[in-house]
Amino acid sequence: MKLMSASMRPSPPLGLAYIAGALKADGHDVYIIDAIAEAPDQYVAFKGRKDIVIHGLLSRQIIQLIHPDTELIGITMMFSINWLHQRELIDEIGNAFPGVPIIAGGEHATAVPEFCIRQTQCLTACVLGEGEETVIDLVKALAENSPLENVPGIVFRNEYSQPQRTAPRKRIREVAQIPRPYWDIFPFQKYTSHGISFGVELQNSFALPLMATRGCPYECTFCSSPQMWGTKYSMRPASDVADEIELYVGKYGVCNFDFYDLTAVINKRWIIEFAKEIVQRRLDIVWQIPAGTRSEAIDREVAYWLYRSGCRNITYAPESGSPEILQTIKKKVSLDRMLQSIRHSSEEKMNIKINFMIGFPDEGHRHIWQSIWFLIRASWAGVNDMAPAIFTPYPGSALFQRLVDEGKINIEDDEYFMKIIQADSLWNIHFYNEKVNPSLLRIYALVYLFVFYFTNYLFRPVRLIRTMRNLLLRRFESRAEWALAELLKRTKTKVITAEQVR
Fold first, then answer.
1. 238 and 158, same structural domain?
2. Is the pLDDT of residue 3 over 60?
3. Interacting residues of 72 by C-beta distance below 8 A, sequence separation 6+
4. Cα separation of 166 and 157, whole Å?
5. What secondary structure does DSSP assign to 427-451, as a single string?
6. Residue 140 belongs to what domain range?
C-alpha cells in the first residue's frame, strides 16, 4: 500500500525481493502480498480526506489474503510517508493473527525503530539496515523461542512491551554472495499489464529494478543512507551483475532495467567493464542509472560505453547550484566537473535528468539565484529533465535530527507525517527554511521549472516537438514525460471512500 497526496508510479519492491531470496535460500516457504499490484487502480481517501489517498489494497483486503497457516509476517517500511497507514495495518494484522510475530524492515524502520515499537501494539521487531543475514537469525530465534537480545541488528519489543536495541550487526562483506532477489513469487504479469514501474518505459517495456552496489561513501545531511547502510561502499563484480541481467532476460523476458544504486558510478574501470560485459554478451537491453555524487567519473570514454551497452537515461544529483549550500549539506560535488560530465553524456544522446532541491534550512535568496544560474548552464550542457523537490527532513538524516534538536519537529505528532505526505504538493508544503518567505519559496520553485524548461526548449526546439509526440503516443523517453502523463492521468483518477470498497 502507499499513502500519498500525489506520487510517482510505484515499482516492484526490490528490498522485499532480496529478503524473500534470503529466506528462500535458507529453506523457508515464502509468499508475498503486493498491495499495489493487486489493486493498481484503487485509490481510497485516507480518513475521509480526498487529497490524501491509499493506493492499493486496504488493510482488511490484505488480511483476507494472508494464509491462515502463516508463521511470521514481514512488512517493508521504506518510506516515512507511509507510516500513518502502516501503523494501523500492523495492529490490524496483529489483531487478526494473534501470536504470529510481525517484523518490519527498511529505511523508516531503521531510522526510528524505537518509535515504531512504541506507536504500535503488535510489532515484534524492526530489522536495522541490511536485512538478509539479520532476518535469517531473527526467524530462527523466533522459531526456537530463544532470546531476541542475542540477535544482532534489531530493535525488539521486550517482556515489558518496551523497545530494546541489540548489538549492531556488521555490514555484509561479500555482496556478491547475497542470494538474488526472489522475483518468482511476484505478480509480474500484473506489473506488465498495468505498467507498474518506476523506470522510464522505453519502447513501452517493463523496467525491473536492480542493484550493482551497496552503500554510499558520502554523508549528505539530507539523506538517511548513512544510518541505513553506513558509509561502506561495496561493488559486485561486473560479471555477476551481467549474469543477473542475462538471467532475467531469459527467465522473464525483461529487456529494461532500472538501477537503484545510491551512487552507481564511482570506479571508472568497473563501469566500463560492466558495459563491455553487456556488449560482449549481446544482451539487447536498455537501462537507466543514477550517476550519484561521483559524476566526474563519467568522461567521454565512460559515456561512450554506457550508451553502447544500452544506457539511455542517466540521473545526476547536484541538489543545489550554490557552492555554499553544497558545503553545508556535505554534498561533495564539483559543479563545473559535473557540467563537463553532462556534456559527454549528452553527446552520446543519453536522456539526462538532474535532481534538485529548494528550501534547505540555511538557503537564502543569493543561494537560490546561484541555483537558477546553474540550471541555465545545465540546460545548455544538455540536461533534459529537472523537477525541483522541496526539502523535506526525513527520519535518519542529519538535518532531521538537527531540526528535532531545535524543536522544529516533533515526530510524536502526526502532523509531522501529514506534512511530509504533502511534500510534493507545492501549495500545501511546509517549509523548514526561515530565511525566505514561504510564498517566495513557492514562486522560486516555479521559477526553477520555468527557467529550466524555457531555456531547454529555446536551446533545442526539437525537444519540445519530441515531447509532444511522446505524450501523444505514450512512448516516454524521459522521467519528466511519464511524470507529466501520470499527472494528467491522476486528474482523472477516481478517489473512493473506504466504505465503497467491496
1. no
2. no
3. 100, 101, 102, 103, 139, 142
4. 11
5. TTPPP--SSS-HHHHHHHHHHHHHH
6. 2-165
Flag whether pLDDT at 4 surpasses 60: no
- Rounded CA-CA distance 126/108 in Å is 10
The Cα–Cα gap between 294 and 478 comes to 22
Query: What average pLDDT does the structure give for the chain?
Result: 89
Q: Hey, what's the cell of 395?
A: 527520519
Q: Which amino acid is at 463?
A: R
Q: What backbone torsions phi and psi does residue 140 show, to the nearest 5 degrees?
A: -65, -45
Amino acid, single-letter form, for residue 464: L
Q: Using CA atoms, how far apart are residues 407 and 384, in angstroms rounded to an integer?
A: 39
Structure confidence by residue, pLDDT tens digits, 205-252: 678 999 998 888 888 999 988 777 777 888 899 999 999 999 999 999
Are 260 and 137 contained in the same domain? no
Domain check: are 242 and 160 in the same one?
no
The span from the CA of 502 to the CA of 491, in Å, is: 24
Element (H, E) at 130: none
- Same domain (yes/no): 142, 217: no
> What is the DSSP code (8-state) at residue 27?
T
For residues 498 and 54, what is the distance between their CA atoms, to the nearest angstrom? Answer: 10
Of the candidates 310, 297, 314, 174, the one whose C-alpha atom is nearest the C-alpha of residue 240 is 174
Cell representation of residue 161: 512491551
At residue 438, the pLDDT reads 94
Would you say 103 and 74 are in contact if contact means Cβ atoms under 8 Å apart? yes
Which residue in 396, 374, 391, 401 sits closest to 434, CA to CA?
Answer: 391
Average pLDDT over residues 264-281: 90
In a domain, 411, yes or no: no
Look at residue 91 and tell me whether its pLDDT is greater than 70.
Answer: yes
Kindly state whether residues 247 and 160 are assigned to the same domain: no
- Residue 8, pLDDT above cutoff 50: no
Number of domains comprising the chain = 2
The helix (H) or strand (E) run that includes residue 14 is helix 14-25
Q: Is residue 463 part of a domain?
A: yes
* 297 and 226 belong to one structural domain: yes
Instruction: Count other C-beta atoms under 10 Å from residue 336's C-beta.
Output: 10
CATH, residue 123: 3.40.50
Q: Measured between alpha carbons, how far is 328 from 178 in angstroms, rounded to an integer?
A: 36
459 Cβ neighbours under 8 A, 6+ residues apart: 379, 380
Same domain, 288 and 437: yes
Cβ-contact 24, 30 below 8 angstroms: yes
Whether 467 is in a domain gets the answer yes
Please provide the distance, in angstroms rounded to a whole number, between the alpha carbons at the two ends of the chain. Answer: 17
Report the CATH number at residue 274. 3.80.30.20
Prediction pTM value: 0.91
Would residue 170 count as lying in a domain? no
Alpha-carbon gap, residue 138 to 149, rounded angstroms = 10
Residue 311 pairs with which residues in a beta bridge?
A: 287
Angle, CA 476 vertex, CA 470 and CA 479 arms, to 5°: 125
- With CA atoms as reference, report the closest residue to 498 among 141, 128, 56: 56
